Every structure is written in C-alpha cells, then in structure tokens.
Write the structure tokens for this entry.
Amino acid sequence: MMRRTVLSLALGAVAAVAAMTIGSSSAAGLVSFSFAVYPGAAPVLSADDLEGLARAEFERMAALAGKPPTAGTAVATAVLGADLKEIEADAPEFDDLTLAPSATVWVVRANTVFATNRGPTGEVLEYDSGYLIFNAATGTLLGLGMP
Amino acid sequence: MGADTGVRRKVLRVAVAAIVTFPLGALPAGAACSGALEKVTNTPHVAATAARMQWKGRTLVATDTAARGFASQVLWVGTNGVSHTQVWVEVGATDGWQGQNITTFYTASKDSAGSYSEALVNAFPVQLGTTYTFTIEPSPTAGFYSAKVSNGTLTSSSGWNNHSPGVRDYAGGLESTCQTSRIDNTYVQLNQFRRTDNGVWTNPAAGTKTNLATPGRIDWCVQPVTFHYELNNQILYNCS
C-alpha cells in the first residue's frame, strides 16, 4: 500500500554520472572509505560520523563471525530514498513512514566481513561483502544486505 | 548477485548452556550467549503462496543488544517452493537492532541466490497488549514478496525482490540470541496460510513444535491452529 515506484535504471545511470565525489579516508589495516553524494541528496550526518558508525558495525559483524575485522574498501553514497535502488538494486522496499522517498540515506557498500544471526535456523550467516543503509539525518541503521 | 559471489559459510552457533542461571540483565562481561528458538512449523496440505499470524505484543528484553543480540517474535515464510529454513521472508518484532537497544518491527529475507538482507520497520511502535497481524505474501510484481505488519489501524508494507511464489512451509515463534533474554508469554491467535487455488486464508491442518531453549516453552492453545510461547516468562503462562 505504501510502497514506492522504483525509478528506472536509465535515470539511475544519469544520476550515477552526476554523483559528486567528496573525499576519501583510510586507516591502516582497516577498511578504506570513499564518499559521494548523488544529486538531490542532503546528508546531515557527516562523512566522518558515517565512517565511525559503519566501522562500529563492521566490528560487530566480525565479532559475530568470530573473526578480527578485515582490511577492505568501502564506497559510501548519499542518495535520496526514492533513488535507493539505483545504488543497490536488491535493497529492501521500505514503507514510507520508515524511509520517506524525499529522505536521504547513506549507502555503504564494502568488501569486509558481513554476518547476521537472524533466521529460522539460529545459525550465523557469514559473507565477505555487503552493504549498510543509514538514515543520513539520524544515523539509524535502516537495513543491510549481503553480499 | 550470483550464487558464487564471495564466501558464504554457515557457522553453527556454539551452544553454551551454563549461563541460564544468571538473572535477566546480569550477564557477566565476556560471558557467551547461546541462542533460543521456539517455533511451530506448519506445512499446508494444499498448494499455498502466503502465510500470516496474529499475536499479542508482550515484553521483549534482550540482554545482549550491544553485541548485535536480540529477542524477537517472528513469522518465517518459505518461498520458491522450498522450506522456510532455506529460502525465506521473515517479519517480526525485536528488542535489539544492529547493536542498538531499541524495540521495533523489522523484516528480513534470504533469497534463492543466497543473498541475505534485513530492514527496519518503524512505521508505528511495538506496544504491549496490542494485537498485530504479520503477513508475508507475493505481490503482483513478479519476484516480489511483501512483508506486512498491521496494528488494526495502520499497515506497514515492506518487501523483497528475488522470491518466487510457492510456500511449502512456514513457522511462527520466538528467536533470541541469548538465553538470559526475556520474551513474555504470547498467544498466537491465528495462524494461517493462503491457498493458491482460491486465495482463501485457511487454518493449518498440522503443525510441528520446535523447542531449542531450556528456559523457553512452547505449547498448543487450540491444536494445531494457535499456540503460545515464552522465554524466561515472568507472567502467567496461558492462552489469553
């Protein structure tokens, strides 16, 4: 009832070309980050704050998998909720009250340890890449996917 | 999104039974948790595409939220004609969300390619005593399954790609990552699947209980349609 219409891939391709890279950072032995903002997106959460939240989540997932955090790369993209699937085609379809189409999210795609312990078997599922979706105003982790 | 992308290993959680003697909220630093899973699984006797259940909101207290732990009440629905333990969509209420100590609704999915995803659902809060309906069903859009939560007034609809119709089985119950957590006795008032040949919601004809937690219990209220379950229950264990 409250699902949004998914924008066409053609529109996403245009937006991708127009995305603006705003910087990068790295820490020895950890995941290095690069950042970009899509047209129309207006993240309140700074790149530094986002990186801190993402690193904390990476550490929690690595601990869940029983491993030390691994080195890797992360690409953080600020994008409107309406354009989320231009960044991650299989991202969840959120209801509009959880994520308004006009709201901005940070999507962090990384190749490092991803893990979850939800599921009907009680097992830990582990992957070597995935993405995180943060509310770019509050920092709330709205979702994740792997790989 | 191919099935051969990356390393996908399943690591069985280490079972540690000794921690169940600690009181709620008093798990010692560094102590390991073991999971708890109590569910009733139904296998429809006719071809089905969807399932739903109604349950009453009860106290959820996870003692390990900082470590990505949770205490949840969940509906799991198998898609693609295989068991809900292989390819599924789930929707539920959880205390503990991605390391945060919050109580919220959520949905998750593991698709036929092996990809796994989770999403927050916070259109309205989880409230004690309110009866909620969880529904997981295919949408008119091919390959898309909806995960819905209704509080009787509002319905939140989220969803997932890469799921084909065909429900071989589904299950409802509790899941927790730590046996010191608490899920108060809750009564599933309605537990149904939707027949593919007529679209009618039908009560299940059979159900199987799974009990994987010493401090938890699951039992029938009206066998096999309704059941109740709890983990470290602190209220009367009944069907109301």
